[in-house]
Amino acid sequence: MTVESNQLHDALHVPRGKDGRAPDPLRVGGWMPMREYREDEAVDFVIVGTGAGGGTLACKLAEAGFSVIGMDAGAWWRPLEEFASDETHQDKLFWTDERICDGDNPLKLGSNNSGKSVGGSTVHFAMVSLRFRPEWFKCRTLLGYGADWPLDWREMWRYYGEVEQALKIAGPVTYPWGPKRPRYPYRAHEINAAGWVLAQACEAMGIAWTETPLATISAPRGRAHPCVYRGFCVTGCATNAKQSALVTWIPRAVTAGAEIRDLAMVGRIEVNDAGLATGVHYQREGQWRFQRARNVVVAGYAIETPRLLLNSATDRYPDGLANSSGLVGRNLMAQTNQGVYGVFDDEIRWYKGPPSLTLTEHWNYTDTGKDFFGGYAFMAQGPLPQAWVSTQAGNRGLWGEALLREMQQYNHQAGFKIVGETLPQERNRVTLADEKDQYGLPVARVTYSLCDNDKALVKHSIDFMSRGLDAIGARDIWAEEDDTCHLNGTARMGDDPATSVVNADCRSWDIRNLWICDGSVFPTVGGVNPSLTIQAIACRTGDRIRQLAALGEL
Amino acid sequence: MPDRYPGYDVLSKRNTASWNDASRQVIDARLAIVDSPEFFDERKWRTLRAICDRIVPQPAGRAVVPIAAMVDRKLADDHRDGYRDARLPPQREAWRRGLAALEAAAQARAGVAFHRLMTVAQDALLRDMQCGRLDGPEWDDMPADLFFRERVAHDILAAYYSHPVSWNEIGFGGPASPRGYVRMYFNRRDPWEAAEAKAGHEAAARDANENM
Ligand SMILES: Cc1cc2nc3c(=O)[nH]c(=O)nc-3n(C[C@H](O)[C@H](O)[C@H](O)COP(=O)(O)OP(=O)(O)OC[C@H]3O[C@@H](n4cnc5c(N)ncnc54)[C@H](O)[C@@H]3O)c2cc1C
Ligand code: SF4
Fold this sequence. Notes:
Shape of chain B: elongated
Mean pLDDT of chain A: 96
Oligomer: heterodimer
Distance between the termini of chain A: 47 Å
Mean pLDDT of chain B: 96
Low-confidence stretches of chain B: none
Number of helices of chain B: 8
CATH architecture of chain A: 3-Layer(bba) Sandwich
Number of strands of chain A: 22
Bound molecules: flavin-adenine dinucleotide, iron/sulfur cluster
Structural class of chain A: alpha/beta
Helix content of chain A: 10-25%
Radius of gyration of chain A: 22 Å
Strand content of chain B: under 5%
Low-confidence stretches of chain A: none
Order of helices and strands of chain B: HHHEHHHHH
Radius of gyration of chain B: 20 Å
CATH topology of chain A: FAD/NAD(P)-binding domain
CATH class of chain A: Alpha Beta
Number of strands of chain B: 1
Structural class of chain B: mainly alpha
Number of domains of chain A: 1
CATH superfamily of chain A: FAD/NAD(P)-binding domain
Number of helices of chain A: 12
Shape of chain A: globular
Largest interface: A-B, 75 and 67 residues
Largest sheet of chain A: 7 strands, mixed
Largest sheet of chain B: none
């Protein structure tokens, strides 16, 4: 970089998980001992990606006594000393390698949804930690759309509880929707003005709202002190209040004997003549290397996971690995993320605190009064200046004096955004482009188009949220009509090898020692942020692998 | 435009608990960006500067934010966003092509370089670009409206709103770590936040901002 200090970018160039030690993110300059495995000796599991799915599974498997290596293409950060309060600089957390987007609604990736570091996208996520509505696990049977999951909601309810405890989720005393759930481990955070605006709008519209269950601590935990409401969450938390995989699952995994290799980009999974995975080819410190493994888990996020499976094609598997169904890369679902905004006489100052301190799941749990399948939550917002100007310019086409005037209302703005369900469609997919990346690997082409149902949901949400803002006296209300957020799908789980890529245990149908454990396995997405569900599935997969091993079925 | 936060300077917090070392290093480096090109040639640099002046007309009597240089550095480093609309070439090529095409349009329309046009004529050309009304062989299939939205507006505005001067203008708190915020409710301002000028009380706001 010519313009910014190199020192703060060190982690992007020099691997840290090496020589028997790993960074301890909770201590300035700290290290912790880390076990190391040889490349020529097969470990029980190599996990590609250390985010919500991979980081959690690495911890569970290491704690179950398996030998585990987690590899991540990204850096191993030390938030306390390396995270600046700065949107531009913190770009270093995102997957900014080229990806090509097309379709009717070309997606925006990078800072919008894709992380690249040890801890994955949880390092910069907004910490909203929600459970699925139980019916969604059988939405084809019970609600008439999408595809059923091969999982039982009661079992998932237990795993949600495990993750909420592991992350000390701060949430409300009682949650207004769905079956009873245990109390959240930590008390809810204080609500900021932007959050109160949502509460008032919901009350005016006669629907329930609640404090958002968040993965940032509201009381001290070990060496981490509580959230200080600095508001830079989506650019990385410099105080470690945020319970990302980087400060939770990963240190636990390392303590339990896992090895994590940072700056390790996996380019291909090797499969032998018997049709079994034997390890991964990965690039680290400028060299292609090979790690032997008895099992390979892919947990690279809904774009990189299919890309790696497709890039690993062989003569025997010309369409990529685990792809006999032809579904690898298909059914990509990007949740819709439309917003409405208005201006208030009051000072809101929405840059203070985590961005979404309140939310409503009313339209996730209400099936009447809808002309579409699926649901949406909507939540309070707190965009930082660059994010806000990109919303203003990108959606309203403002520039010049008109834009500067509008930006001056920054401290008086409030608004809501949805996390909206989109339907699985086979035409929405990840394929390989001709262009190559810096490792010489074909980059992903991401094709996305909303269907009529998706558009009807968006319209419903914009109408409803606008009326909510209007009811509490907001001025200059406008809608952001074009945005999407979290990505899932592309390697769905199911009961039938013909219509799914993995089974309920995240094990691929085609290759018995190849597993997929991240948001890719979602058959549907629901109207809530996905990371709690991804982590719950990873916890379940860890337990299942332990059981299968005990039965001799690994 | 009225000064909504008179006397507020986010940099006055540089040596307080609101800024950690990392933030200081990053902002110092940004403030040190020299207003000359590393990536663009002289001609394209002049066009880019003229565009920046229209996308973000900066008020007189204030230090000028070197927006064009900030965009130039993004391209010099080829620091990408992580996605690209399939109809656009990679960012360096998009910028080179787009600037050349805008120059060609200025020449065709008025026979002079874009930066020599009156501001109204510049605005008209930019608006035509925004609406996709510019085309011709120089564009080589790159849609002008997409170039405007994904490169011109996106890169220029991201650069401006990464600069402390823009934060002063909108009353943003700027870096906040290790100290964050305490007063979360409506109309509650922490003493280390910008005070807004209310009609008739501008002096009080200035006083609060200058004694932060
Ligand atoms: C700004 C933002 C806000 C968000 N807010 C929320 C929120 O509030 N609540 C919520 O639930 N979700 C949120 N999300 C989404 C959430 O972070 C993701 O859905 C979740 O982290 C995905 O988990 P994953 O395991 O699929 O992938 P990730 O967590 O992204 O992890 C994938 C990892 O794999 C690595 N990888 C990929 N390919 C390779 C390869 N070939 N070799 C080596 N490593 C590889 C990547 O570097 C990455 O670190 C947010 C996301 C963003 C970007
Ligand atoms: S608001 Fe809390 S969680 Fe967000 S970055 Fe700040 S301390 Fe971390």
